[in-house]
Each structure stands twice: as structure tokens, then as C-alpha cells.
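User: Fold this; C-alpha cells only.

Assistant: Input:
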Amino acid sequence: MQITISKRWRQTIRATLFTITGLASLVPVSATYAAYPERPIRLIVPFAPGGGTDMISRLIAEGMSKDLHQTIIVENKPGAGTTIGSDEVARAKPDGYTLLMATFAHVVNPYLHPKLPYDTDKAFAAISMIGHSPNVLVVKPDSPIKSVKALIEAAKQKPGTLTYASQGVGTSAHLAGEMLESLAKVNMSHVPYRGAGPALNDLLGGHVDMMFGTAAAVGPSLEAGTLRALGVTSAERSPKLPDIPTIAESGVPDYVLDAWYGLYAPAGTPADVIEKLNAAAHKAANDETFRAKVQGEGLVISTGTPKDLDDYIKGEQARWKKVISASNITLD
């Protein structure tokens, strides 16, 4: 049976559809994210597996997954001093499904690598700080170097021969060594790796003399007695390592450096998605299980608002721009 629709009815139907389409366009874009997240989220870690950043990322992802009722998959994208992983997030769709665990390198890379593939200040949206921890200067238990003072003396006697490992160029561990060289007026050799795990393996294997590792990365080895701590890079002694002096009190005045961990999304991510992620990160980081696991590694939990993270980063950028310029450190 053929149904014939009059011209008048066709016009009425077209007008109705036009009205519906117009109303739909007036719905705020953020409303489309009301059900977020509807599929698994990727958390990019710009380091190799096995280090402190990888461990903290996996623990925070586990906690946030429970709150968001969606899987968060940790993907390690090491290389180029965190630039490879960071660039992947910078280029990702700003829908909340690709996140970055940023660290100290996020602050200093613009001053070390003038030709970054992204603009750090414009490419990312802050979600939340997770926490801070010192770096720890460690050696093997049988190392003849027993203190920071002894290390400086040895470095002055044999310039350029002592080697220190880091989890990559431009990381807090790398700049910790550069700062020591600058303030103590010594010359050592930096050996970068694609993550704290590989760096630790070579230190334990005797291929490098020392390492400035995050407390989270070197904590298990210190507890096991397979590494020995000489000093911490923070302004005050670490609650986890109260018997280990700061490098500043060991004869290098003004020496201060903190490692940190913060969550970011691509710039343009809807505000309500950022809000959901911030709430999930805060809840996960302050969970007793998470605290018990990471505070044992020296991490001090310090979550807050996206603005809190932005303000902290601005302060660090101003400080490290001066340090890097004064030390004449260039990597390109």
C-alpha cells in the first residue's frame, strides 16, 4: 500500500525536524559528558616500567578506577626526557580519555629543550597534584664513598670520572646532579636511562657510581640493604629517612630539589570532566591503602585543585628558569 503525504504535511515535518535539530545544538557541550567515563581511560607514564613514577601511577590508577567505575590503563611511553609521552597526550583528543602523569621534567623541559613539539603552558589542563618526595643520592653498600663530603672530594680529585645515573635527561634526578656540580664546583658524568628501573639495575650491577633516585624508586633497595643513602635533596630531612642528612646540611648550601607527581589532561578537556577526575584523584591519593604504600617510599600526599597545581608549577618554572640559565645547561 502506498501512502501519499501532502505538501502541507511534508512542510510541517521538515519544520519540526529543523526545530528539534536547532534545540539540540543549544545543549551545552559539557552535557554530552554527563556519563563520563563510558570507556577505559589511558594514563600515559613517560618513563619505562619499574621506577617510582610507574609505581605511583599504577597505584593511583587503581584507586581512581574504583571511584570512576571504569578501567584506567597505564601505558609506559619513555624517551626524550618525557617528551615522547607528553607529546602523545598533548596531541590527544581533549575528552578525558588520555591523561598524563607529569613530573619534574614537565617544568624544566621548556628551558632545556627550546624546540619542544608542544607548548607546555598551552597544551595541558591541570587535574591535580598527587604528592612530593625528595630525591635520594644513593651508592652501592660497598662503595668507598661514605658521604656527600667524600663524594665532592673524590669528584675534585678526578674530574669527570665519577658517574651518576638518572631516569632520563631533564628529570629531577638529572638536574639534581647538575645542581650538585654547579654548587659544589665539581665535574661528574651523567648517564641517562629510559626510566628509574633500568638506571637502578645498572647501579646495582656496578656500571655507574651513584644515582639521584626518587624516594619511591630507591626505597625498596634501601630497605633491602642493596643500596646506601648519602643524602636527600629536599630542604628538610625526609620522615622516611630521618637519619640521612640533606645535601644542603652536608656542605652544599642552598641545595634544594623536590620530585613531584601531577595529573594532566589535554588542553580543552571539559571542565566537568576535569572536576570528576580531580575528585577521583583526591579520593584515591588520600585512601589509606594508597597512603600506606607510597608514604613508606617517602611520598608526601598533597592533592588540591587544578589551580593549586597550576600555581605550584608557575613558581617552579620561575625558580628553575633561573637555575638552568645560571648553570648554562643546554640539551639541544
